[in-house]
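Box 3.1. Reading complex inputs
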Amino acid sequence: MMEKIQTDVAIVGAGGAGLRAAIALAEADPKLRISLISKVYPMRSHTCAAEGGAAGVIKPDDSMDLHFNDTVGGGDWLCDQDAVEYFIKEAPKELTQLEHWGCPWSREADGSVAVRPFGGMKIKRTWFAADKTGFHLLHTLFQTSLKYPSIQRFDEHYATDLLVDAGRCQGLTAIEMRSGQLRQFQAKAVIITTGGAGRMFPFTTNGAIKTGDGMAMAYRAGVSLKDMEFVQYHPTGLPNTGILLTEGCRGEGGILVNKHNYRYLQDYGMGPETPIGQPVLKTMELGPRDRLSQAFWHEQKKGNTVPTPWGDCVLLDMRHLGEKLIDERLPFVRELATSYLQKDPVHEPIPIRPVVHYMMGGIHTDINAATVLPGLFAAGECACVTINGANRLGSNSLTELLVFGKRAALSAVEYIGSGVTPNDAAITKQAERVQGRIRTLFEKSGGTESISGLRKEMTDSMEEHAGIYRTAEGLQSACAKIGELRLRYADIELHDKTNVYNTDLLQALELGAMLDCAEAVAVGALERKESRGAHQRLDFEARDDQNYLKHTLAHYHPNEPPRIEYLDVVITKSQPSVRDYSGAKK
Amino acid sequence: MSRKPYVREVPKTTWYFRQGRYMRYMGREVTCIFVGAYALFLLVAIKRLSEGRAAYEAFLEGLSSPAGILFQVVTLIFVLYHATSWFNLTPKAMPVQRGEQFLPGGVIVGAHYAGWVVVSLVVLFLAGVF
Amino acid sequence: MAKSNKPIVWGLFAAGGTLTAFFLPALIVLTLLAALGYVPDLLAYENMRAFAEHWFGKLVLFVIVSLSLWHAAHRLRITLHDFGFRSDTLIASAVYLVAALGTIAAIVYLLRI
Amino acid sequence: MSERQIQLEVLRYNPETDSEPRFQTYSVPCEAEWVVLDALNYVKDHLDTTLSYRWSCHMAVCGSCGMMINGEPTLSCKAFLRDYPDTIRVEPLVHFPIERDLVTVIDDFMEKLNRVKPYLIPKEARTIAEGEYRQSPAELKRFKQYTLCINCMLCYSACPEYGLIPDFIGPAAIALAHRYNSDSRDGGREQRQQVIATKEGVWECSFVGACSEVCPKHVDPAAALQQVKIASTVDWYKEHLMPWGKS
Ligand SMILES: Cc1cc2nc3c(=O)[nH]c(=O)nc-3n(C[C@H](O)[C@H](O)[C@H](O)COP(=O)(O)OP(=O)(O)OC[C@H]3O[C@@H](n4cnc5c(N)ncnc54)[C@H](O)[C@@H]3O)c2cc1C
Ligand code: SF4
Ligand code: F3S
Ligand code: FES
C-alpha cells in the first residue's frame, strides 16, 4: 500500500521560491498544513550558487519606472509588462522583508543597505551580500522557515508526477529516496518551484539538480511550457568547470579583453570605451548578458580569442581593482578562480567564456503565478510569468523568486478558500498508475541504452545546435536528435535494482525530464524565425515584432514533438524600440 | 522497510590514534597532569615553609635528587607545551575588533608571547636570578 | 534542558589556564635552578619566609596554587573522559574534591606562616 | 591534457545486499585539474551506475558532497587530485550512520539545527514600511564569518567529542546560534542560551579545534564555541554572585 499524505498545499522544491512560498503560506494561515517537498535538503538548492545580487528600487536616485524600463528593454520587449510592474513594485518590500529576517546584506557606512551596479541596469540597484547573495538569501529563508511548525518538510523526496482529476491538480507522487517508496501527496493546491534546467547543456553554471523536473511534470500534465527557446548564456564562466564568476566582477569595474588586450565590446554597439576602473552603467562591460555572450561568439569567429586547454576564451581583467576591494566585495570569486583555475584575479587576468546559465522560459503562468490547470501554481526559475522576456537581467531572478514565491502562496490560499478537496479514489488510482510506470522502468531488463550515453548525446546536440547562435538547419537536426533520444529512452536499463537511495533511478527520471524540456527548447527555437534577446538566428538576424512579439507555448505530446502556439505579449506602457547600450546617447 | 543504516562505532579508548591532530590535542590535555603535579609540589613547599627552616631546607635539598631534577625538567617541557598551545588559541576565544576589522590572530598571539616573555623575565629578575 | 553549571569550574579552569601559562614556566625554571644547586635568592628560607609572611605574598601563592589545581582538575576530568573513562560524575567528584582540599590546605598552610 | 590513472577505493554499502561496508576499487583515468568528485562522476557514468553519493553545485557552496578522503573530512568538489597520491580512499563522513555507499543519515544534524533557533528574533519589531534596520559595516563584520556555514557537516566528522557523545549539539549548530546572538538586530540570545548553554550544548566541547581546521568556509566554529563558553560563564557569575545585577 502506498503511503498517503493529506495536506492543504504541497510545494515541490525548497529553493528560494519554494521556501518563500512556504513561509508566506504559514504566515497567511497558521492552520494550513504545508508540505515542502524537495529532492535535496533545502540548503542544497541551487539558489545557494547565486553570487551577484538581487535588484530592487530603494535608493532616492532610483525609480520604479527606471527599473521597469531596464527590465523590459533588457528582455527585448518580450516581458509581460503588467507582471513587470507588479514585480518592481513588490521587489523592495521583499528585499526589506529578507533584511528583517536577518539576511546579512552588505552595508553602506551609514548602516543602510548597499547597492551595486549590474549589467543592463541604468542605476545601481542590486542589493548584495558580498558575492554570496543567493547563498545568504537561501539560508536566511531556510532558517526562517524553521520558525513555522506548520511547514512540514519532506527532504530528499523526488517528485515524479502531478495527480490531476476533474481538470484540477490535486496532488502529486514523490519517491522517498532513503526508502525508495513512492508516496502520494493529496493536496488542495500544488506549487511547483523546482528551478531551472541548465543541465540540458554540457557546459553550465547549474548544479546537478537542475534538470527541469518540475517543468516536465507540469508539461506532461497538460500545462504548456512558455518561451523555452530563450536560454541565457552568462558571459563569464570558468572555462574548465563552468563555474560562474558573477557579473559583480564587471559591476565593480572588471574589464573584458581579447587576445590583443583590446576591449572588444566597443565594436559591438556597447562603446565607446569607458575609462578603466570607472564602469559606466549599461555600456561596455555593463551591457546585458545576451549581447556580451554574442560578442564573444563573433570574436571567436574572428580569431581574436585566447586558446586554452579548455577551448577559446577571452580575458576578464580585474587587477586594477586591487586586493582590498576584491577581498571585500568579491572574496568568493577570488577563491573560486584561485582554486579551480589556479589563477588569482588580483595578479592575473582570468580566462572566461560564455556558459549556459538560466532559463527565461518555463511553466506558463499568469501574473498571479497560476497555471491554466486549476490548483496548480508555479514560481521561480521553473515558471515563466514572464518578467524576463527574451533575456533576463542579472539580479532580477533572485528578486523574482521572492515576489512570485509569495504571490503563488497567496494565490493558492485564495484558491483553497473556494472549498476544493482532493478526490481520494480517483487520484489514488492515478498514483498507482505512476507506480506501475516507475516499476516497469525499474525492473525492465535487456535494455540497450545507458543513461549517461543518452545524456551525452542530448547535451552535445543542444550545445552544438541550440547555443548562442542558431540556424534552421542546426535546430532541425537538434529536434530530430531529441525526438530520437526520447524514443531510445524507452530502452534504457537500470543496473541498480535496489530501493535505498537509488541514484540510478533518479538519474533516469531526470534524463526523461530533460529530454522533454530540451525538445521544447529546440522546437520553440526552430519555429521562432527571428532574433530576439538570447535567441539569435543566423538565418533571421533581425527582430520581427510583426510576427513574433509573442510568447511561444509548447504543448506536450507523449511521442511526438510538441505543438507550438503563440500568445500575445502584454504591453502597457513601453512600446518596442531599439535596445541601446552605447554610452554615446547618454 | 529496506533501510538499515550502518553505524560505525567510534573506538572509545583509542580514537585519538586516528589522526595527528587528535594526538596533538591529547598531548595538550595531558599537560594538566603536570600542571596539577606542580601545584601539589608547590603546596608541599608551602607546607614545609610553614614548618620552619629545617623542614624547608631539607625540602630544597631533596629537590636535587635525580628524580627531583627529572620531575622539574619533564614538568617544564609539558608546561611549556601548555603555555604555547594556550596562547595560540587565544584569538579564537577573545577576538578583538577595532573599528570594522578584527585584529589578525597573529597579533593577539604575538602580544601574548611578548607578555609572557616580560612576565617571565620579571619573575626571574625579582627572584634574583640575574 | 537546564543551563549547565559547568561555568563555575570552567571559569576557574580558564583563569587557571591563563595564569599557569604565564607564570608556571618561570616558576619551574626557578625550582629547576634550585634542584641543580643554584638556589635563586628568593627561594632561600629567609626570603621565602618574608615573602609568604606578607599578605600580598600569601595572596600570590594562594592564587597560583589553587587556580593551577582547579585548572588541572577540570582538564583531567575531560581527559579521563577522552581516554574512555566514562563515569563522569564519579571522576568529577574526585578531581574537584582534590582541588578543593588542595585549596583549603593552601589556606591553612599559608595562615600558619 | 595530461591524464593520470587514479585508484579510487570507495566504501560501498547497500543495506539490501550487504551486512557491512566493504571497499571497491575503481581505476579511473583523470584529467589534471579534476577534483575527487569528477572522478566519482566518471565512475558513475562509465564504470558503475550503482554507486550512490550526494552532490550538486560543484563549487563548494551547496554543502552536499562532504566525504572522508584519505581519512580527512573534505568536500569532494574541492579535493583537487593534484594534492593527492595515486591511490585515494573515499568513505562517507564518519560519526554519521551510512544510509548507502557514500550517503549518510543526517537527521541528527537537521534536528539540532532546528533546536538552536537559527533565525532572527528581533530586538524591536519593524514594519516593512519603516524600511531596513540600520547596521554598520562593523556590526555586520562582527558576525559575518559565522553566516558562511554551508552545513556540510565536515566539522561534525572532525570533532571527536561529537563521535564520543552523540548528544552534543556540535560545532556548526552552535556557531549558527552564536551568529544570531552576535547580530545587532537580534534579541533572542536568552532563548538560545536555554539550548546551547546546557550540558549537551557548548559544554561538551573540549576545544579540540578540529572543527575549524577542516571547515572549508573558514567559519571557525571552534572560536564561536569558546566565545559562547566565555559569555555563558559571565552569565553564570552574574546570575549567581551578583543577582542584583540582573537586568
Ligand atoms: C551560478 C549562478 C549564479 C546566479 N546568480 C544570480 C544573481 O546574482 N542574481 C540573480 O538574480 N539570479 C542569479 N542566478 C539565478 C538564480 O539563482 C536562480 O534562477 C534561482 O536561484 C532559482 O531558484 P528556484 O527557487 O527557482 O530554484 P532552485 O533554487 O534551483 O531550487 C529548486 C528546488 O526544487 C527542488 N526540486 C527540483 N526537482 C525536484 C523534484 N523532481 N522533486 C522534488 N524537488 C525537486 C530542488 O531540490 C530544489 O530544492 C544565478 C544562478 C546560478 C546558477
Ligand atoms: S562550520 Fe564549516 S565545516 Fe561545519 S558545517 Fe559549517 S561550513 Fe561545514
Ligand atoms: S572539534 Fe569539537 S570539541 Fe569543540 S572546538 Fe571543535 S567542537
Ligand atoms: S557539490 Fe556542492 S559543495 Fe560540493
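In summary: Chain D has nine helices and seven strands.
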